[in-house]
């Protein structure tokens, strides 16, 4: 599922010049693309795995960073051929096709899937209590030795220090955070986040600094956190509340940070 490795299944798919015929998928890649499709629909396209060419245009993909930010015309040309609705999936046998060639980027969901894959392996080995973490995405099961729930910190969204904003207690669930405070660059006096809005094709600019989502599986938590981060606080909070999704929002203000949480998130907070 890597776009950074030329020999990965995803890279080979992306390099296919003609994607209009059914192209076979492994079960794992099909599973990830199917979940991505569902979350794209839930978030009205705020989460979109076909945004890869735009991510590359801004310099957050495998290619080198551009010498200058993309022009309006460059963005418009790339956006015109992207869109999650341009991918068509087939369940049996697993396959995908697209009338226009797509470049799929799974960096906002595949890491969560990796966590789930490790968790499934531990389950199959009969291990009842574990914590799996890959790059900040976490899934836990059971309880710690001694019987306490797993306690996980949500970070303060600052790029120059690492400190705790909130602590939550989890048991048999997953958690992921999406923010603009780690992966970004500055050009022409402006700061550009790695999180791209699939609608505008531009890095997000609102004051929502980070979103944390708790879900049954890490793949969903990972993708939902990204989608909510793109949507911005008001729309994301409304959707998460309506769908009873545990979500925690940290908003950047002139006086520091302001936090909000959905009703479903409240039961997880310890401090």
Rough shape?
A: globular
- CATH superfamily assignment of the largest domain? ApbE-like domains
Kindly report the spatial arrangement of strands forming the biggest sheet.
4-5-8-11-12-13
Structurally, the number of domains stands at 2
Task: Report how far apart the termini are.
Answer: 37 Å
Strand content: 15-25%
CATH class of the largest domain: Alpha Beta
Radius of gyration: 19 Å
CATH topology heading of the largest domain: T-fold
Helix content: 25-40%
CATH architecture of the largest domain: Roll
Oligomer: single chain
**Average pLDDT for all residues:** 90
Number of strands: 13
Q: Count up the helices.
A: 7
Query: What string gives the helices and strands in order?
Result: HEHHHEEHEEEEEEEEHHEE
- Indicate the low-confidence ranges by residue numbers: 183-189
Describe this structure in words.
The chain has 271 residues and is α+β, with helices and mostly antiparallel strands. It folds into 2 domains: 9-97, T-fold, CATH 1.10.3980; 110-268, ApbE-like domains (T-fold), CATH 3.10.520.10. The protein has 7 helices and 13 strands. The chain has helices at residues 9-14, 27-42, 52-57, 72-79, 110-124, 218-231, 233-242, and strands spanning 23-24, 88-90, 95-97, 130-134, 137-141, 150-155, 164-170, 173-179, 184-187, 190-193, 208-215, 247-253, 256-261. The strands form 4 sheets. Strands 4-5-8-11-12-13 form a 6-stranded antiparallel β-sheet. Strands 1-3-2 form a 3-stranded antiparallel β-sheet, covered by helices on one side. It has a two-stranded antiparallel sheet with strand order 6-7. Strand 4 (130-134) and strand 5 (137-141) form a beta hairpin. It is globular, with a radius of gyration of 19 Å. It starts with 8 loop residues before the first helix and ends in a 10-residue tail after the last strand. Mean pLDDT is 90; it is low at 183-189.
């Amino acid at each position: 599922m890597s776009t950074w490795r030329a020999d990965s299944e995803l890279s080979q798919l992306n390099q296919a010049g003609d994607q209009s015929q059914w192209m076979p998928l492994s079960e794992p890649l099909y599973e990830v693309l199917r979940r991505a499709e569902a979350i794209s629909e839930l978030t009205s396209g705020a989460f979109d795995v076909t945004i890869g060419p735009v991510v590359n245009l801004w310099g957050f993909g495998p290619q080198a960073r551009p010498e200058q930010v993309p022009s309006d015309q460059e963005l418009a040309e790339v956006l015109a051929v992207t869109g999650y609705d341009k991918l068509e999936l087939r369940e049996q046998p697993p396959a995908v096709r697209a009338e226009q060639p797509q470049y799929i980027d799974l960096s906002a969901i595949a890491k969560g899937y990796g966590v789930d894959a490790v968790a499934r392996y531990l389950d199959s080995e009969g291990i009842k209590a574990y914590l799996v973490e890959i790059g900040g995405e976490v899934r836990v099961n059971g309880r710690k030795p001694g019987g306490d729930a797993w306690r996980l910190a949500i970070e303060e969204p600052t790029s120059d220090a690492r400190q705790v904003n909130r602590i939550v207690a989890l048991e048999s669930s997953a958690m992921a955070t999406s923010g603009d405070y780690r992966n970004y660059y500055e050009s022409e006096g402006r700061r550009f986040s790695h999180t791209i809005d699939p609608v505008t094709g531009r890095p997000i600019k609102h004051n929502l600094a980070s979103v944390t989502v708790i879900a049954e599986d890490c793949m969903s938590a990972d993708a939902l956190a990204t989608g909510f981060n793109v949507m911005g606080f008001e729309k994301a909070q409304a959707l998460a509340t309506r769908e009873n999704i545990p979500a925690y929002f940290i908003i950047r203000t002139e006086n520091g940070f302001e936090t909000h949480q959905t009703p479903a998130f409240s039961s997880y907070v310890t401090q």
